[in-house]
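Now for one record:
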Amino acid sequence: MINDFYQYISPRPEEEKMRLEVVDRIKGVIYDLWPSAEVQVFGSFSTGLYLPTSDIDLVVFGKWGTLPLWTLEEALRKRNVADENSIKVLDKATVPIIKLTDSFTEVKVDISFNVKSGVKAARLIKEFKEKYPVLPYLVLVLKQFLLQRDLNEVFTGGIGSYSLFLMAVSFLQLHYREDVCSPNTNIGVLLIEFFELYGRHFNYLKTGIRIKDGGCYVAKDEVQKNMMDGYRPSMLYIEDPLQPDNDVGRSSYGAMQVKQAFDYAYVVLSHAVSPIAKFYPNNETESILGRIIRVTQEVDEYREWISKQWGSQSQNDPPLNRNDVTLLVEPQQLDECNNNVPDDDVVVLPPVPRSKTSSNSSSPSPSVHSSPSSSPLSQSSSSTASSSSDADSDGTPCKTAKQQSGRGSSTHRETSSGVTNHRTQSHSTSTPPGSNKGGKVSTALLSQPLAPTMYMTINLSHVYL
């Protein structure tokens, strides 16, 4: 099922085309201001690990005495590239950026200046993708999992894409399975074990993550000795492999909420694949992955709008069942899993109204694309700071305190039908067995081994999520 979800959620050619047009529009403004400047794309768009509603990250290189944040902001406004109410300059941030929403596509964009680390990180991510073919599958599922719980934005305390990617890499490096580098790895097992590690066994208080030189866990006490006076490692300490003195997780103050969400997912999935699951009342009416992942109707509508604006639907896309849902899993695959999930309950997407399209869909020119009002995204939102969505119906307490207090400012709300907007402690480390070939683990950081439940009571070797 993870394979099917990955095939569905992965970027489509028309979505890439749309994003490239957004980049070109912004580049045009920048080059008009500074002809000698250089603009590069980094982040998830450059690595291909982006969700349909992910941001685009741009960095501008040039020679300025003072970063021209406000100059570019004014130019973007005058050229109507950015939605008037969306553009914001965060000049006090650790990395000053301009945040905006493209007027035509509702795509969010972050623009920074003279920051080389993002481009280098994109190259590093591509290298790890080649080494671990399962990474894209694991990362996209995890990104969707965090997004629908509002735990994917650093400025609201969640875990950013880079931190999440490094956590996944560390997990694979220190994982005892010898097939993690194989494209035929059982991704369902890896997903459950990822949730188990970071939801139950990783000691966030005492342990940090390092992926350099094969990967290892590091004691925070040792890390602090090498840092400047007064600095303490964050709750989620992740050493930046490109800049060892940079704590990638330093702004993720909601790390414990993320831990709780991971623990919840582990419990739900491990129960779903246990021998007694067949006796559960909802066993035949809910897919395994669908218990923790939901894709909203608005996302489906947005992707269909993009398809009609920038190209025809690919033959490789999952077929639409116009009666009720989009099916992401073939019946025979469910039989192999012994899950017997009916068609109308497999990680579903509600039907897409055909009327929500632009009257200008036949025009390829960005200047004559439909206005934001005809985009499915703009019908329910006008602000772009950060959005709150919880497409999950599980009710798990996964919001950070800041998010709970700031819900009133969010522009994306749960509808009466339960469909939301798209945008949306005792800790112990796990001990990789002696056969681990990926890295070293200090025994001083470990308080107990992995619980045997998953390996003994529950036979996961034949489970495919």
In short: The longest strand covers residues 56-61. The chain is about 30% helix and 10% strand. The CA atoms of residues 224 and 232 lie 6 Å apart. The two ends are 5 Å apart (CA to CA).
